Amino acid sequence: MSAPGTVETRPPAERTPPPRRPRRGGRRSLRARLRRDWPLLAMAAPAAALLLVFHYLPTLGNVIAFQDYNPFVGDDPLDAFLNSEWIGFGNFEALFRDPLFWDAVRNTLSITAFQLVFFFPLPILLALILNSVVSGRLRGFVQSVVYLPHFFSWVLVVTFFVQMFGGAGLLAQEMRQAGLQPWEIMTNPDTFIVLVTAEAVWKDLGWGAIVFLAALSAIDQNLYEAAAADGAGRWRRLWHITLPGLRPVIVLLLIMRLGDALSVGFEQFILQREAVGREAAEVLDTFVYYQAISTQQWGLGAAAGLFKAVVGLALILTANKVAHRLGEQGVYAKS
Amino acid sequence: MTAQLSGAGPVPAAPRTAGPPAPPPRRRHSGRPVWAGRPSTSLTIGKGFVLALLVAAVLVPLWTVLVTSLASRGTIDDAGGMVMIPREIDPSAYITIFSGGDVTQAVWISTLVTVLGTTVSLVLTVLAAYGLSRPGSVAHRGLLFYFLLTFLIFPGLVPSYLVVTGLGLKDSIWSLILPSAISVFNLVVIRAFFMNVPAELLDSARIDGAGELRILTRIVLPLSKAVIAVVGLFYAVGYWNAYFNAVLYIDSNDKFPIQRVLQSYILAGQSPNVSGASVSLPGVTAYPPTLAVKMAVVIVTVIPAVIIYPFVQRHFTKGVITGAVKG
């Protein structure tokens, strides 16, 4: 990332830091560089425009959280936005007084915490097991099978669970034939948190292991050899070489998970909300959906969405700062 | 240490060539390295058990659904529901869902959205990735920041919904494509690959008078087939699996994608008000929803992923990791 030529030409007496940005082709005029680079800009333009419309514009649109937004005071959303009344933090006050909102926050946080404990370590374990499988063919087979559910939609995942564990599913069927009372797995609010975690594990366990497998394959084999020569057994090698080798990746993924603490996923919960009831299955995302789009309380829904976005951003920045303190790279390392 | 030659593990390892000392392998491809001792038997059995369990957890549901979708009414009645052991093959469930009706229509819509969307996404992403792959070009840093900033800020559901409907995309299949057309993560993955193309190659092409577009299509793209394939699969799977956007934006039954139909057709009995609107169960009036027909819809929904998957699977690790590391 450094262009040596540009730095050398500066007089050394100058105390200003050397220019960070490498200038391709030295100091040409902006116009000359534009003439040279315009095709590159033109190539990036369509994607940039799409992001502007479908990402940045809605981000700015979050200001309707401070409005009593009413789609009927205008001909289109923009017109309605211009004509809607500004009410300051009124939506937030209503939101924070709403016990349903706090239910959703609590559900979201418990699911995140539960999955952090019962899901997060599993891909690491799987990667360690797979990595220790000597036969390449067996490893390849297992990998292809366990990656597969990652490519299924949530609708499919829930469908598979219903067909296996639901009231008319395979398990209930077998239990009935054995004269047992089938379990209520799919509709039980008390165990819903286990169910959603099991679904998430089924879908993404294998996929989550990929990045750890890659990190494992990047560990210098000579370290193991040297440790073995020094008499370190299997478990000591795991503890002193493998786990430290995985540490940066683990920290990185942990940060990303923490930054996402308030989003546990839309579809999984929308799909099962009716079956287990709102008390257990309402998370922040579904709360926003039902407040805004179903019951047309746009301002309230936007306020909840903005709350989630701001807290999420704060979480990811904080987690990253902590990671830097711990001497890890974090998500956006200073390159 | 005699154990290392026998290649411990749940299955016998590939035969090792004992003779010439090959260069030290980075990955153990053919057996256990000499210094690694043999794991205890209980450890080996435990690992084998875990792996077998995982494989079964994926394959048993798939198998059961497939067999049930092909089972005759009698077989299903005998089993009392889901069938695990096939007795007679009866493709009538598939004939039913493909002889017109909502499922056929939904498969067509989903195919259209997937093909159209993947094309749009790949073209735009590749162009942008190439446009951003030259450090030092005009506005390079600013543009890159503009793209990467999307990782940190989240637009929120309500404003997104208002923008999409405000653009008149409500109830149009473009509402399933345009809002999700650019994945910045995929863009970063492709860009990382493009940046690995040797600069000398590009310079020599430039000297020969090739423009940027020609360099991209003639030199850079052929070198990046693997990553394009993987990213294409990611996009295609995303479009095929799109469900929530359809709930949000699609109102008319004849534009429902397959996931939406699957949900209302199979899960709706369990959660009828899931979409927030009352859904007139597509297909229910057209033919009796036997278990085989339901499972056939599941299989149809699974199939595209399973078909494309083996072709790109070997590129996964490379593609995913390059992006993650270089990004």
Helices and strands in order, then pairings?
The complex is a heterodimer of chains A (335) and B (327).
Chain A: H1 4-8, H2 30-61, E1 67-68, H3 77-83, E2 85-86, H4 90-97, H5 99-118, H6 121-131, H7 136-147, H8 154-165, H9 170-177, H10 192-217, H11 221-229, H12 234-259, H13 267-276, H14 278-281, H15 284-294, H16 298-325
Antiparallel strand pairs in A: 1-2
Chain B: H1 41-69, H2 73-79, H3 92-98, H4 102-131, H5 140-148, H6 157-166, H7 184-195, H8 199-207, H9 212-223, H10 225-241, H11 244-249, H12 258-267, H13 291-313, H14 316-326
Helix pairs in contact in B: 1-13, 3-13, 4-7, 4-10, 4-12, 7-10, 7-14, 8-9, 10-13, 10-14, 12-13
How would you describe the overall organization of this protein?
Chain A has helices spanning 4-8, 30-61, 77-83, 90-97, 99-118, 121-131, 136-147, 154-165, 170-177, 192-217, 221-229, 234-259, 267-276, 278-281, 284-294, 298-325; strands spanning 67-68, 85-86. Chain A is mainly alpha-helical and 335 residues long. In chain A, strands 1-2 form a two-stranded antiparallel sheet. Chain A has a domain at 92-325: Orthogonal Bundle (MetI-like fold). With 327 residues, chain B is mainly α. Chain B has a domain at 109-284 and 312-325: MetI-like (MetI-like fold). Chain B has helices spanning 41-69, 73-79, 92-98, 102-131, 140-148, 157-166, 184-195, 199-207, 212-223, 225-241, 244-249, 258-267, 291-313, 316-326. In chain B, α10 runs antiparallel to α13 and α12 runs antiparallel to α13 (291-313). Chain B starts with 40 loop residues before the first helix and ends with a helix. The model of chain B is unreliable at 1-19, 270-288 and 323-327 (pLDDT under 50). Classes of the chains: A mainly alpha (335), B mainly alpha (327). At the A-B interface, α2, α3, α6, α7 and α8 of A face α1, α4, α5, α6 and α9 of B. Chain B: One of its GO terms (biological process) is transmembrane transport. Chain B: One of its GO terms (cellular component) is plasma membrane.
